[in-house]
Amino acid sequence: MANQFVCSLLLLIAATSTYAQITPTIGIVGGVAAASGTRSYVVSVKDSGGSILCGAVLYNDVTVITTASCLVFLPLGNFLVGVNNGTKSIQIVANISNPDFDSDTNEHDVALLKLAESVSAEYVELPSNKPVTGSTGVLTGWDANNILVDVSETIIAADDCVSGNYGYDVDEVFASNVCGLAKNKACNAIGGVPLVSNNQLVGLLSWGNACANDDNPAVFSNIFAEKSWIESNVNNL
Ligand SMILES: *[C@@H]1O[C@H](CO)[C@@H](O)[C@H](O)[C@H]1NC(C)=O
Ligand SMILES: *[C@@H]1O[C@H](CO)[C@@H](O)[C@H](O)[C@H]1NC(C)=O
């Protein structure tokens, strides 16, 4: 593809070198530190050395939602989930990716992880409505120092994202996506970090073709579009 898929690119770099190198080189630029004690629904997928590989979110006490690209592009192994603002790491006992996930296009980029032990934290709900262009949400991820930061985002529904205003085509952004523009041009988040509105999970960062550029929103998995898959698989993990 002609576009520079930031997330996929980083993941490719990860696959061809030691993926522990991801963490020092990326981190959100332009975010605002999340208030202490908030955002406990945000968790990380980490390697056994403790490096954060992807973002993810707690759906209930033992279930994490992340991106399928997180699991596909990275070496499988002893992944852990970092909870409680990184103060605790928990093993993963099961995982399932949406079988419709397409690793070329990142369509249907969603996966579920089951934790080895129960986590007490805030959980996100699945969205009750499809994403509405112009509504807002908060993306939360890590800066270069692994501090959780918030980025205010304007949500753009997939059909508006491919309307010609943003440089994306219909063969790149699908019904299983939602786009988001960082209001303060923040950028450099890692894949899987959540976009949340009213405690509902709108999206998980999947990829994006530029940084800090108004014409190039980030592309998220559209959790409303994945809701039935999540609901029908969460109890089968
Ligand atoms: C996470 O922990 C760091 C380090 O102790 C702290 O500075 C930060 O405020 C915490 N963030 C949240 C969202 O609790
Ligand atoms: C996901 O499950 C498969 C087996 O179904 C396993 O080989 C793989 O290591 C697991 N991935 C993670 C991240 O736990």
How is the secondary structure organized here?
Layout: H1 6-16, H2 22-25, E1 32-33, E2 42-46, E3 52-58, E4 63-66, H3 68-73, E5 80-83, E6 88-97, E7 111-115, E8 136-142, E9 148-157, H4 158-161, E10 177-182, E11 194-197, E12 200-208, E13 218-222, H5 223-233
Antiparallel strand pairs: 1-9, 2-3, 2-5, 3-4, 4-7, 5-6, 6-7, 8-9, 8-11, 9-10, 10-13, 11-12, 12-13
Bound molecules: 2-acetamido-2-deoxy-beta-D-glucopyranose (2 copies).
What labels describe this entry?
15% helix, six-stranded antiparallel beta barrel, 13 strands, 237 residues, six-stranded antiparallel barrel, disordered N terminus, alpha+beta, 5 helices, Thrombin, subunit H, 2 domains, binds 2-acetamido-2-deoxy-beta-D-glucopyranose
Please work out how many helical segments DSSP would assign.
5
Identify low-pLDDT runs. Answer: 1-25
The level-1 CATH class of the largest domain: Mainly Beta
Structural class: alpha+beta
